[in-house]
From TrEMBL:
Protein name, as recorded: Tyrosine--tRNA ligase
Subunit comment: Homodimer.
Cited Pfam families: S4, tRNA-synt_1b
Cell location: Cytoplasm
Motif 'KMSKS' region in this chain: 248-252
Organism of origin: Kinneretia aquatilis
Keywords: Aminoacyl-tRNA synthetase, ATP-binding, Cytoplasm, Ligase, Nucleotide-binding, Protein biosynthesis, RNA-binding
EC number: 6.1.1.1
GO cellular component assignments: cytosol
Known catalytic reactions: tRNA(Tyr) + L-tyrosine + ATP = L-tyrosyl-tRNA(Tyr) + AMP + diphosphate + H(+)
Length: 417
């Protein structure tokens, strides 16, 4: 029988049995997802893999537009890991070529393309972070410049001939920008085409992405059919709201948890999310089964303190990206702070010119943005020196070393001379 990835006809005729393992794999695939399209095709791909023992090829493309990954990115990585655990082959695709175009998804203006140097620097750190979630033994790392660079001008023209401008303009962000008379550069049309061509080059069975990537993922299906391949299925995952519970997690909005940030900071940030938001995070980020999560949610509904559940989530995620010991230490640090204690590790600041006004010390230590904010925090009782609340705005600190605290989380050990 021909390879079903290069000839769609045999796969269309052969119906493989739907076993309990296939149904279980489907349930795992659908956990937390927004859409799985077409579901019937994915069921048959799973059934074929079960019957033949040939792993499916699961593709995720990430453009290295920034050097760090936050836990919002790991929503899709978690799904990849679940599929790896079912025995399938994951392709972690670094879009070094497509980064030079710039993904127009969700943009109301042309995205500035990155330089080759920026792309290289960012890509070097991407997989080092992603492998904290993925199983390295079942992960294939690829760069789309492998096939995009050799395509050349002739190949690019032939590729562009396989899609119409009218269909390209059906894309929501292009439609809105055109209606608003906001410029759309011709090279932006190439981005979905090149992302779709990645699926052809990799012969992918399933491509994952956020809900904002649906147009690009469907392009992969279209182009695979154009090139005589069995079309991939697509699975979109919801975008994770950040710490504010409203906006999509983003470094630019400062509502993110970076997977490489210190364990204590990660733990505290996760505990800051709302009780309602916690359950979505459990579903999308935790490796607990849905049954375990449902049981935990039932306990909270019956009266268990929701903070206890949130602590379980914070410890699980902190342990994943650091270690179990680091998660335990982060919990102890958080509890110590909550009791007014001083963390083990705080910034060290040296200042000269004692005696110095307290507000000036707070600003110089980076605990407040301005002297006026420092005065306001003192007046509101939000400043402590060596654990004691200070309310005298005119206080001057003499030479020596003190621990200064603003609010619950900001500390500095200040040495004055």
């Amino acid at each position: 029988m021909s390879d079903p990835r290069t000839n769609a006809t045999p796969a269309a005729k052969t119906q493989f049995p739907i076993t309990d393992r296939v149904r279980e794999a489907l349930a795992i695939s659908q956990r937390g997802c927004d859409e799985l399209l077409p579901e019937s095709d994915w069921v048959q791909k799973l059934a074929r893999s079960e019957a033949t023992g040939v792993p499916l090829r699961i593709k995720l493309g990430l453009d290295p537009t920034a050097p760090d990954i936050h836990i919002g990115h790991t929503v899709v990585l978690n799904k990849m890991r679940q599929l790896q655990d079912l025995g399938h082959q994951v392709i972690f695709l670094i879009g070094d070529f497509t980064s030079m175009i710039g993904d127009p998804s969700g943009r109301n203006a042309t995205r500035p393309p990155l330089t080759a140097e920026q792309i290289k620097a960012n890509a070097e750190t991407y997989y080092a972070q992603a492998k904290l979630v993925l199983d390295e033994s079942k992960t294939e790392i690829r760069y789309n410049s492998e096939w995009s660079d050799p395509l050349g001008a002739r190949g690019m023209i032939q590729l562009a001939a396989k899609y119409t401008v009218a269909r390209m303009m059906e894309r929501d962000d292009f439609t809105k920008r055109f209606a608003a008379q906001t410029p759309i550069s011709v090279h932006e049309f190439l981005y979905p085409l090149m992302q779709g061509y990645d699926s052809v080059a990799l012969k992918s069975d399933l491509e994952l992405g956020g809900t904002d990537q649906k147009f690009n993922l469907l392009m992969g299906r279209h182009l695979q059919q154009e090139y005589g391949q069995e079309p991939q299925c697509i699975l979109t995952m919801p975008l994770l709201e950040g710490l504010d519970g409203v906006e999509k997690m983003s470094k630019s909005k400062n509502n993110y948890v970076g997977i490489s940030e210190p364990a204590n900071s990660m733990f505290a940030k996760i505990l800051s999310i709302s009780d309602e938001q916690m359950w979505k995070w459990f579903k999308l980020l935790s490796f607990k089964s849905l049954a375990e999560i449902a049981a935990l949610q039932g306990e909270v509904s019956a009266g268990r303190n929701p903070k206890e559940a949130k602590v379980l989530l914070a410890k699980e995620l902190t342990a994943r990206f650091h270690s179990a010991a680091a998660a335990e230490a982060a919990e102890a640090d958080f509890n110590n702070r909550a009791k007014g204690g001083i963390p083990d590790e705080i910034p060290e600041v040296s200042l000269s010119g004692a005696p110095l006004g307290l507000a000036h010390v707070l600003k110089s230590a980076g605990l407040v943005a301005s002297n006026s904010e420092g005065m306001r925090m003192i007046e509101q009782g939000g400043v402590r020196i060596d654990g004691t609340v200070v309310s005298d705005k005119g206080l001057k600190l003499e030479a020596g070393t003190v621990v200064v605290q603003v609010g619950k989380r900001k500390f500095a050990r200040v040495s004055l001379a």
